[in-house]
Amino acid sequence: MVAAILNIRVRFIFFLSLCLFVIAVFLYGALNRLSIDVDNTTSTHNTPKHFQDIEVQRHKKYTISPEEKFLAYFSHSGYHNQRIALENALLLAKLLNRTLLLPPAMLGRPLPWLAFDTMYRRLFVTTKTGIEYCKDISENYPLPAECLDYFSYTIVSWDFLVDMDPINKWHRIMDRPEHSYEWLEKNLNINQNNDIYFVKDTSRLDYRIYDTPNSTIPYSKYLRKMEISDLLAIDKKVIHFGSLFGSFRVVPEFPTNLEYATFIRKHLIPTNSLIQNAANRIINKLGGSKNFIGLHIRVSDGFFMKFARPNIDNIYHQIIDTFTNLSPQEVDILEGGTHDSDILVDDTVDLGDPISRDFSTAAESYQKNIDLNILKEVKCRKPFHPTDKGVNTIIYIATDAESPRTNPLLFKFFNTFPCVFVLDDFDQELAEMKSARNVEDKTPLANYLIPMLDAMISSKGFRFYGTPKSTFSNYIEKTLHPLYTGKELLIELV
Prior knowledge:
This protein is of the alpha/beta class. It has two domains: 70-267, Rossmann fold (3-Layer(aba) Sandwich); 287-484, no CATH class. The protein is built from 19 helices and 16 strands. It has a five-stranded parallel sheet with strand order 6-3-2-10-7, with helices on one face. A four-stranded parallel sheet has the order 14-13-12-16, sandwiched between helices. Strands 9-8-11 form a three-stranded parallel sheet. Helix 18 packs across helix 19. The N and C termini lie far apart (90 Å).
């Protein structure tokens, strides 16, 4: 009996050991997969073998005067939202005559807006300090749990992305490498309880700030109105805001202040050499600046995914109507007969006004803007249209669509126009960017710079069409495209 019991125990222990071994093997494989797939566009486990380490932070020394006063804010969301917040922060710091404490730009894994105190806690724990060893783990080993997010974002100074020197000469800025109050006390001798006036936001669009008393510009989407005159009366060493995101959240109605806002917009444009070099190489392949139409088509998330088909159809027909002499029957065949179904959408959603057909000006517009000799040198993917009819117009599409050339949403563009290009067509021109990584944390940079590259390329065409309600498209349309094509900036305060 004893022997039988022992035999059963031995078998049970053996079976349990075998189960634990299988589980261990499974977990090891799962961790290995996680270490590769958590963000396979940025992790060093799925990137080129040879890298060029790039300096992404400019370390400066500052001399602080005892009477100096400061303006601080929290940075959140994606790059373009951070840029919009910076525009407002620079203007507000200028109007209040306070040194701007500038947080770095966070690229990748954007932090959403949160109420002030919650936002502070979230920013405080978003750090790679203490886990620097993550970057040195060999690709042959799984990443430990604390490292799974390590390569999903990186921190760079604004100097790395744009030329901040003209802005620094225009108004005083001090880099604030982290958001903690401890940093303020250690570096600026600022006490959290005694020296800071907090403007704590409780909603994403809490306040709008005006330079003009009794302004007639509405603040309808914001909860409250603040005035520069009231903020000037605050004597604390620091005025600390939460979010400053929102186009013209700081409203510059006085002519001098509007000039300030224009100055800021003109200078907060990409000047990074990796972006500029890649853009120049690709634009040359497109026949040069102003020899193509630039598009931005956003389809991969939220509102933009839901309304992708009508948005795309609207852009497509604007180009068809403006630049081609195709008949409605020819267009219907080329776009696959999908127009009637594509435009079915909630009629309460503003997708932009379509351009009416005007065949008399289409060919003239095409001939005026395209250098036909250069067109012959561009390596289009499909044969030219035999009678042209404007269909041979060169088009560059900046998009977040996966596999654009085979994506059914974009079928009508590739089927109609022989000279349509996307970033995926330019692997050789992207080699330098793909090999670059942040020297600080060894995070590859290409995935974060590519949206800026797409913006720069599409903005240098002679015409630009964007996606309604996209801050990315709005930035190209109202800032980059005018600057790169010698036009006036489109400043709309409402």
